[in-house]
Amino acid sequence: MSSSAGESSKTIVLISGANQGVGFEIVKKLSEDPNFHILMGTRSLSNGQAAISSLPDGVVVEPIELDVTSDPSIAAAADVVASKYGRLDVLINNAGIGPYAFPAEASTRERFTRIFSTNVTGAACLTDAFIPLLQKSSQPRIIFVSSGVGSLTLTLDPSRAGVDAPAYKASKAAMNMLMATYATKLTEEKWRVNSCTPRLSATAFTKGVGRDPSIGAIIACRLATGEVGGTGGFWDNEGTIAW
């Protein structure tokens, strides 16, 4: 382990898919707290460095190469964190792809396969790889950045406008089940495992539709800091929401 005494005393947070969108807003908010050391998961280190260069002077964020669809990439990231810090305190599963990532002619099978590979399988593989390091934390937290469109209750509500994105919606419902499975598996008192939704936020992911992504990032940050949340909940900025 090669971390400095200062770093080892901080809360170590890894955020996947964090060089843009809501993930980057989470980075910005958490990096304002000097008690946190942020690991920015990014598929491209150059893209991560470019994002970090836009942060205010004096803000320290560490990029870490991470592609959640690649087992070797996940293993390499875990090795880096293990060698430098010996533990992880907070894992935020934010990386994901949505319905706009495909050309109009993409088949149903292609959409489901790619979306589930990233949003569900990728989150599961990343979580499994980091549980040994999270176990070494005194207050381990796992956060799954889900979506309200993954709520069965809200989807079945006839008063709400539907979203024609079955693969994405199903992946977020599956992510919530994934969270619930980990919450029932990690039963030591110290663990906190939750899902949250930033709601529709204006990012490249949504083609600029939605509210300011900095607002969407708030609930993930509150769960990361322990300000809110027991374990096994599905949250937005206003509180818990229906499954």
UniProtKB/TrEMBL annotation:
GO terms for biological process: secondary metabolic process. Belongs to the short-chain dehydrogenases/reductases (SDR) family. GO terms for cellular component: cytoplasm. This is Uncharacterized protein. It comes from the Eukaryota. It holds the Pfam family adh_short. One of its GO terms (molecular function) is oxidoreductase activity. It comes from Alectoria fallacina.
